[in-house]
Amino acid sequence: MLGCLRRQGRNLNCDWPPEVHHDVDLRKTVDLRHLRDDAQFGEELAIRYSDPLRREEGLTEAREKRMQCMETLFATIAMLHSLTKDDVRHAASERDWRIDFALVILPMVLSFALFAYHLCGRVFSAVDAKSTATIAVLILSVLVSFCRVLVGEMWAGAVEIVRIGNAHVSFRTVRIPWSKEREFLFAGGLLLFWLIAAFRYHTIANTPGRP
Question: I want to staple 24 with a disulfide (CB 3.0 to 4.6 A). Which of 20, 81, 171, 193 is the partner?
Fold first, then answer.
């Protein structure tokens, strides 16, 4: 799947798989993507290395060893690509916006729009009084938009788990864009719901035979 972390070379020993040395040009998009994928794969190896240690040595010790492992792997990646560890560390925090848009934002917007379209149609078909229908739509817009933010956050988390191939997302959770834009997403949901409601109202009001 596009955007998934590589599966080949995964291990629990904090070992970087064999790779031929080649310089990375940070001015080239393809090289930046390669570095980002390597850096995030390094994080995944460090997490897989530390997960068994949480049961054996405790959370604090496991966290320290995870950081040590990650620093070692970042140093290896930096050496292989003639870069600094800071370059690798920065690349690890980067996201592929295409994946977030195609697998999270677009499906959630489309499903929300279809649900709002159907729901508003039901309201305007069942309620003749404009004021009553308007109040109902306002209340529903708040409820549906709020639920959309929660469902979207769960969906984004599920997509991330599939993308990295590990249910233990760990510190990478904070990088998921959806969870950092709740207020914006809620406001955007309200606006989209109202626009759809206005369209549905005019469509149904102009339907032949409707009083």
Answer: 81
